[in-house]
Each structure stands twice: as structure tokens, then as C-alpha cells.
Amino acid sequence: MTQTTLPPLIQQMLRSEFYPHPVTEPIELIQTHVSYVLLTGEVVYKLKKPVNFGFLDFSTLEKREHFCHEELRLNQRGAAELYLGVEPITQTGETFQLGGTGEPVEYVVKMCQFPQETLLSAMFDRGELTEQHLEDLARELAAFHLKAPTSDYILKFGEVSQIRQAIDENYDQTVGYVGRSQTQVQFDETRAYTDKLFAEQSELFVNRVQNKWIRECHGDVHLRNICFWHDKILLFDCIEFNEPFRFVDVMFDVAYIVMDLDARNRPDLSNLFLNAYLEQTGDWEGLQVLPLYLSRQSYVRAKVTSFLLDDPAIAESVKQEASETASRYYRLAWEYTRHKSGRLVMMSGLSGSGKSTVARQLARQTGAIHLRSDAIRKHLGGVALDAKGEADLYSLEMTEKTYDRLLNLGITLASQGYTVILDAKYDRQALRSPVVAQSAAHQIPLEIFYCDAPLSVLSDRVQQRQGDISDATTDLLKTQQMEPFTETEKPYLKMLDTTQNLEEQLPK
Predict the structure, then answer these.
(1) Three-state DSSP class for 247?
(2) Residue 427 near residue 376, CB atoms below 8 Å
(3) Dihedrals phi, psi of 345, to nearest 5 degrees
(4) Crossing angle between the packed helical segments 316-335 and 184-200, to the nearest 10 degrees
(5) Rounded to whole angstroms, how far apart are CA atoms 250 and 253?
(6) N or C: which end of the chain has fewer CB within 10 A?
(7) CB-based contact 421:368 (threshold 8 Å)
(8) Angstrom distances, CA of residue 137 to CA of 223, 260, 286
(9) What distance in Å separates the CA atoms of residue 269 and residue 190, rounded to the nearest whole number?
(10) Residue 344 and residue 366: Cα distance in Å, rounded?
């Protein structure tokens, strides 16, 4: 679209004299199918186009004003520093004025302009997205979700009929791309997975509603809608225009980031993010529905890319690239639905023996879910992860509850196809034997990794811990003692000397 074919308002907004503040010229215009975005240097102005796509309706001035205010309200949650306000645009004759006193003819969302290189997607592309960034992101998203409102009205969007409507629509809209961007087998098997899940495991979705994990989420939280600016993770551009896209399971949001990292061939980073997020919220049961949302997010990315193939205005070279991208996402959507064989790994060893270090490393290598007893204990006790627990948190009763929860989660998730690492001392036979018995009863493969190091090393490690959720002290270490492994346990056992190279000792 040339400048002369742009609406008169946008033509005027491309001139510096329109603004009551200094601008950087030339003013840059970014268009999407639903908005005009004008970058003026330090401030961004976003206008909604007068369009109605069914799922999004900005067709009247009243609706555009409403959704501008909704965009401001909702994005204050994750990126308050970026969203400055909503301003009217008035008109005198043929001249438009920002924030004038007359009758508004349009509304704009006013935002801080931040450098595009601070987007997590751009940081990833430059190799600058670190593990620390992803741990910070996990904490930010967890805090966002834990504060996100829910209600009886919002919870209704977690019912199977609501969820499957959008997913079935995706399949209906992509039948024409079978044999082009995805195979018939991929299409049939991806759809069969969701049909079977909804038909045979509807109680999973009932539980998500009952436990109030359907909330007013972000709805579009991929790496291009997150930035790291002024040393803060900011979640911006959430869905303001459609309630069903926003009133979703928290795992819907989590799946965007996990899928984004998987699609970029970094499953180690997606595993790190996922485990860090789950530890913050304690919502490990959400893993039972996560594959559905992973497949959904990848499928939608494939679908939207496929639409370019039928656009006559798109060059053939671009279509070829789009076809390859769509194929990659369709394949990923299908892979998320494939059956996997779960297994259990039981860590064992005294405080400071390196159990969590080994477990973290193993999780990254295998995509395992890392369950730390310290986190589970604090969630059960209602204690913040970064707070020190009182004596009653370490009572025999609480220890029993912690190990029961560890085992129940382990069996549940391994039965769903996850590799699950139970990270606790498991110093007593009475704690280990139920894991051995239950894994055998459910025919789940089991390994026991016993981590060992000299007492002086254990003491030094415990003393030097900083910023960890464990409350173990050197005084506590002196009272700990490992009960020997039984003949029943020994076939599962692997001994690890954590003062030596772990790479050489861990299974490949």
C-alpha cells in the first residue's frame, strides 16, 4: 500500500508535525491485518483497523475505543512499563489532532517504544537468550498466572465442548493442505489423538476446571511477544479482542513458549523453562493436558502459514518457504501427539551430594520432568519457595505427605509417557520400597541413581548454597545417614561419584 492510498489519518500520522513531542524521522509504519502501528522514536501509537473477521470485530468506533481500553487494561498485567494510555484523535476540517478537545473520530493505544533487539525471539537468533532469561521468564509467567483472575464464567471456557470447538475448526480449515504441507497420516493421526483424548479422558478437563486453572491468561505469549528490557521480562500484546482466546488453561500459555523453543531445535531450553515454571506453580497435573496444547499451538502456526500458499499476491519463492515452514509445524504438531513410553528415575543421596545437579542435567538430556522434594514440601505446606520453612514443615507427617505426593505424581506422569525424576534423599528403605513396588506394578521402567561424595565435600556444598529452595544446613547433614540398598533395589541401582565428571557416568 503506497502512502497516497493510506487513510488520510495515517498519512497525517506519518508527519512529524502531527505529534506534540519530538519524533525520529522517518516515522515507521508497520501494518498487520488488524492494526496500524506507528513508531515515532520514543513512543508507539497503535490504531485498530475498522475490520470484522468474526473472531475479531473492530468495525465501529465504539468497539475500537472499547478494545483500546481492554488492550491497555490487560497488558498492564505483564508490561505496565510499555503501555502508557489510550488517547482520542479529533478532527477539525481535514486536520486530525492527537488528544484534541472535540468529538473523537478515532482512538490510539500509546506505548513506549523499545528496541526490537530486546525481543526474546531476536535474542535467541543472536545466541543471547540464556538459561537465566528462561528461568526469569518462568517466574514471570508463573506469577502472571497465579494472579490472573478466574470466575464461574471464565471456568466455562475450560469445558471440553468449548476447547474442542476451536481445535476441530483448525482441522476443518486445513483439509485443503493435506498432501501439500502435511501428509494424510499426520492429519488423521493428529485428529484421532484429540478425538480420543476428549472422548476417553474428559475427567482431565473437569479437574482443570475444578482446580481453577482456567484463567484470564495472555493468549499469545510466544517469544516475539516477550522482551527483556531494562533488566525485566515483559509480556506484551496479549489477546484483548476475543474471550475464548484468552480465557484458557494456563497450559495453553505455557505451550506457546515450549513449542517455540522446540521448533527452534532447543528442547533443552524448553525443558528448563517448563520445569522452572512447574516448580513455581506446583501445577504438575497440568502436564497431562500439555501435549494437547503443544500440538494446538504448533498446528495453528502451521495453519496460518499455510494460508499464504493460496494468496495470489505472494511471490512463488515466499510460498515455497512458507510451505516448508508449515510442513515443519504440522510435523511438530503430530509429533506431540505420539505415544511415548514413560519411566521413573529415583535420585538418592544425602544433602549436598549433587542429586539436584545430576537431576537437572539428566532432565535437559532426556526431556524429563524434574520433581524436587523441597518444592513439593513447600507447596504442600503453603510456604513460599524462597522462604525458610518452620520446624513443622519437616515433621514426620509432612515428610510422609511429601514422598507420597512425589510417588503419586511420578506414577501418574510416567503412565502418561513422561520420564520423571524423583529428586529427594530417599535415604530410608521405607521411602524407597514403595517406588520400587509401584513402578513394578505399573510396569514402568525404574532407575535409581545414588549420588555420593566425601562428607567434607557435602558439608562445603551445603554451606555454600545460595538462592536455593533447600533449607538443609550443615547441622542437619550431621544427623543424616543412608540405609543400605537391598538386594531388591540393587538391579535398578547406579552409583555416581559427584566429585568426578558426570558426563562420563550418566547414561547416554
Answers:
(1) strand
(2) no
(3) -125, 120
(4) 40
(5) 6
(6) C
(7) yes
(8) 10, 14, 18
(9) 25
(10) 12
pLDDT of residue 474: 59
DSSP 249-283: EHHHHHHHHHHHHHHTT-HHHHHHHHHHHHHHH--
Q: pLDDT tens digit string along 222-237?
A: 999 999 999 999 999 9
Residue 97 C-alpha from the chain's centroid: 41
Digit-coded pLDDT (tens) for 430-453: 999 999 999 999 999 999 999 888
Instruction: Give the number of other CB atoms < 10 A from CB of residue 213.
Output: 24
Grid look-up 509401584 returns: 438
pLDDT number for residue 394: 86
Please check whether residue 190 is in contact with residue 336, taking contact to mean a CB–CB distance below 8 angstroms.
Answer: no
Pairwise CA distance, residues 379 & 45, whole Å: 43
CA distance 10 to 259: 36
Q: What is the DSSP secondary-structure string of 24-59? A: PSSPEEEE-SSEEEEE-SSEEEEEE-S-B-SS-B--
Question: What is the strand order of the sheet 95-98 is part of?
Answer: 28-31, 35-39, 43-48, 104-112, 83-92, 95-98
Q: Is 147 exposed, middle or buried (0-12, 13-18, 19+ CB in 10 A)?
A: exposed
The residue with cell 524434574 is 370
Alpha-carbon span 328 to 331, nearest angstrom: 5
Residue 103, pLDDT above cutoff 80: yes
Q: What is the maximal distance between C-alpha atoms in the chain?
A: 91
The larger pLDDT score, comparing residue 501 to residue 435, is at: 435
Bridge-based pairing state of the strands 214-216 and 247-249: antiparallel
Q: Which DSSP string do the residues of 325-381 spell out, in sequence order?
A: HHHHHHHHHHHTTS----EEEEEE--TTSSHHHHHHHHHHHHT-EEEEHHHHHHHHH
- CA dist 507 and 101 (Å) reads 71
Q: Which of 352, 506, 362 lies closest to 421, judged by CA?
A: 362
- Residue 129 DSSP symbol: -
CA dist., res. 182 & res. 334, Å (int): 10
Question: String of b and e for 362-394 (b: at least 16 CB within 10 Å)?
Answer: bbbbbbbbbbbbbbbbbbebebeeeeebeeebe
Integer angstrom CA distances of residue 96 from 3, 46, 65, 259: 17, 16, 17, 44
